[in-house]
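User: Hi! Is it possible to get a structure for several chains at once, not just one? Here's what I have:
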Amino acid sequence: MIHWNKKILVAGLLALTITVRADDAMDAATKARIDAFEKGPATIDVSKYPQGIQDNYAIFSQKCTQCHKLSRPINSDYALPDEWSRYVKRMMRKPGSGIDSSDGKKIYEFLTYDSSVRKKALLDDKLAKLTPEEKAADEAKIKEVHDKYDGK
Amino acid sequence: MKASDENNSSPKPAAEPTASGGSVPIWIFILTLVLLFFGAVYFDRHSGWFDKQIYTPFQSANELALYQPKSGEAAMIAHGKAVYESVCGTCHGSDGLGKPDQVPPLAGSEWVSKDIPSLVRVPQLGLNGPIKVAGKDWNLAMAPMGAGLSDADLASVLTYIRQSWGNRSSTVSADDVKAARTAISGNAPSAEDLAKMTPVERGHALFQKYGCFQCHGQDGKGGVTNTNAKTAEQVPSLIYVADGYTKDELIAFVSRGERVIPRMNPNGPEPPHFMPKWGPIINTNELSNIADFLFSLKPKGSDVGF
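Assistant: Yes, the chains can be modeled jointly so their relative placement is included. Here is the combined structure:
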């Protein structure tokens, strides 16, 4: 009987540990969001994008998969230049990321460009919720990237 | 003739009647085993194992103990154990043995049985750098996990660790902790001083108070090793958080902490340092000031152009 009790105890503790761990690592909502993102496609068809953006896609694929699946950013609900700028810098500033500021900028430009094409509906939705100043600033940043790469 | 008659011609007696060959049905065995099983479980849970002190409605010695009024030292130790399990036990272990090469033991540690002011310093200020514990050299950092505990809670925890796992030292009272804390914070800013400061200055004082520097370095410049952490085996520096977080995101991250640190080598050891969950310890206004301070750390001219 002692043995039987131990088994229940071990199973219980295990379940508890797993729950506590998941809870501690990040809140459940964030974890569920990330899991959902990672289940989506892990590549983007960039064949119709300008050559410069295709080159940046290669850097994005190589650098970002050092730490997480590429499907995470590809399917994430970030779309605004402001969001991408912040998240790319957050990742880039981690010690040992191996992403210098010139790579970081290329990754940011790729994500901003890609969001303005592939995530157009989400982007417009997000832009509509901003204050007029924020909206103008983000639109200027999108235009900047398109002006730099389109038709080249 | 007669003898031979007796030997050879008498008829054999009929064989004794025997029961026909049916065996006991298997379901009776199974039912018996099941009943025995549940009987034994019931016995285990309800009998108190023949302890003469346990009778209905109490079912075990633990349950009986639960209903005993607790006072004085026993109550303090019970409370200290609860606080220990939630604050210290994650690293130092329920058995007080720590983790090999990652967390020093408390069982048999001379620091635990030392004078009370020296002992209070550890959870109050954290630790960083070489230290000898129970004959072994360690060189790690510990966040000041006790800085947010009340005098009474910290006193209970310290009493608990001083009297568990073979440690046999005196109890620690809330007044002892209060006195030790007063001595430690001799040159820390008073509440009035804090009120006069700008949010950034106040955030700096709180960065010191909660010992963030023990792991993130003086003024958040980094430099503390975190073996096998994916972040180049370092606790991250904080000088660029202004680039990567909004204020709300930063406050949410500090409140939540990060218990599981990604490993550089997936098969290597767990990195010894992790970000504690500060939400229950640091209040919202203080967190806001700390975020203001961290945002002020960004070096001038470090904009990256996107």
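The domain at 72-186 of chain B is CATH 1.10.760.10 (Cytochrome Bc1 Complex; Chain D, domain 2). The longest strand of chain B covers residues 127-133.

User: Great, thank you!
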